[in-house]
Amino acid sequence: MVTEEMLRTAAEEAERFVLTTLPCDEQHKFSSRFERKMAKLLRRANHPVRYQVMRSAAAVVLVLLTLFGAVRTVSPEIGSSSAGWFRQALSSLIQFISPEPVRPGPRYVYYLAEAPEGYVLQDVLKTENGKTYIYERHSVLASEGPMIRFSYTYGGDGNGLSAASENYHISAAAVGEYAAEVYIAKNSGEANMILWKNPSEGVSFSISAMLDEQALIELAESVKK
Amino acid sequence: MLMYLQMMESTGDQSKFETLYLEYRDMMYGIAYKILRNVHDAEDAVHQAFITIAENILKIDDPMCPKTRGYIVTIVESRAIDIYRRKKAHPTVSYSDETLGVAVEYHGTNGLAGCILKLPARQRHILILKYSQGYTLKEIAKMLGISYANALKLEQRAKARLKVLCEEAGIEW
Fold it and tell me: A18–B173: do the CB atoms touch at under 8 Å?
């Protein structure tokens, strides 16, 4: 009769035998994508407190975003004030708002092709001229921060997105055929951002997340219409 | 993720994790690639396995001992199988079920061990994690990313299948 002790001995023997049949430890040249993800995992392993603070800050930002979306919906005057872009800083995020009148023409709905791995769509905020999708970290398989935000808005004359910010390193980039700007927070506990426009349609996009520049660009390029 | 990060607060745990990463990543990749036959997927399996390892870092004593090595093999194999199953649900390339898990042909004298090694990988994992590694079903459920109820059912199915294999091998259950 098979007892628990026999199972224990057999399981140990089985495990020992599996180890003898493992493939040789050939050195594998890991991709830069893997190295980036593991670097973040190792970094988080070495700085647990910083990420606890980041999570609290992100919760505050979500509340501010919700309030801001509500204000825009009920205050069209914001959308038609003086010329040029203006920027409103919300904690670790920079919200770019076009004060120019919205162009007539077809309106499309934009969305991320799929939720980033480990995240689920938590909320969709509809504003007067666009939408904001909020993704929250859902499982430990997510390697990045607690939240990813994707927004688009119709409006603006395509004159550019950039504005100076002492809290970010700003670099030029491209999302497909469109010029973009990447904002990397100087404080590593804060979200980074990518902004780009489709001038022909008059629609502006932004993604904020704790992702590096390359990952932000990849996510931006996954936006579907 | 923050919970396991907070658990790794001591310098000892942090360097243990780094030691595990540097020591085992190539082996883990080799195992994952054997199952998935795709570089990208195999790297994802390794990354996900390290997340699980970080969550359970406190249970790992010596990073270099055979028990730790066995644990890591089980975890990366399990993660690779998870990815395999997800891909199978939405296939873009063809996979063969026969390559699922690390194929092992037992040449030892313990008939029961031989039967355990004939089990499907996921059933083998649960028995090895419970009986060889000494984890509880609750801990195993968390490691494998399944509910406790599913872990219980998996153990029951593993033992039922093991019983059949034992009877076929002439081992009295």
Answer: no
| Residue A154, both tokens | 């119709």
What is this structure's pTM?
0.52
Report the alpha-carbon distance of residue A117 to residue A142 in Å, rounded.
6
Closest to B132 (Cβ–Cβ): which among A1, A15, A141?
A15
> Locate tokens 């076009």: which residue?
A98
CB atoms closer than 10 angstroms to residue B138: 11
Q: Nearest residue of A to residue B46 by CA position?
A: A34
**Dist CA B7 CA B9 (whole Å):** 6
Helix (H) or strand (E) holding B27: helix B11-36
Which positions in chain A touch B127 (Cβ < 8 Å)?
Answer: 7, 11, 14
Give the Cα separation of B8 and A220 in Å (integer): 33
Nearest CB among B17, B26, B40 relative to A25 is that of: B26
Measure CB to CB from residue A37 to each of B8, B47, B70 and give the nearest one: B47
Chain B residues whose beta carbon lies within 8 Å of the beta carbon of residue A37: 47
Q: pLDDT tens across A152-189, in order? A: 888 644 333 344 456 788 888 889 888 888 988 877 66
Q: Does B90 touch chain A (CB under 8 A)?
A: no
Min Cα separation B142/chain A (Å)? 11
User: What ipTM is given for this predicted complex?
Assistant: 0.79
What is the 3-state composition of chain A as percent helix, strand, coil, each rounded to the nearest 5? 30, 30, 40
Across the interface, of A14, A24, A26, the residue whose CB is closest to B113 is A14
Instruction: Say if B4 is an interface residue toward chain A (CB within 8 Å).
Output: yes
Based on its alpha-carbon atoms, the radius of gyration of chain A, rounded to whole angstroms, reads: 23
B146-170 tens-digit pLDDT: 889 989 999 999 999 999 999 999 9
Helices (H), B37-128: 39-55, 66-89, 111-116, 121-127
Closest among B134, B131, B150 to B142, alpha carbons compared: B150
Confidence of residue B101 (pLDDT cuts 50, 70, 90): low
Q: Tens digits of per-residue pLDDT, A55-113?
A: 444 544 554 555 444 444 444 444 333 333 333 333 333 444 444 455 667 788 898 88
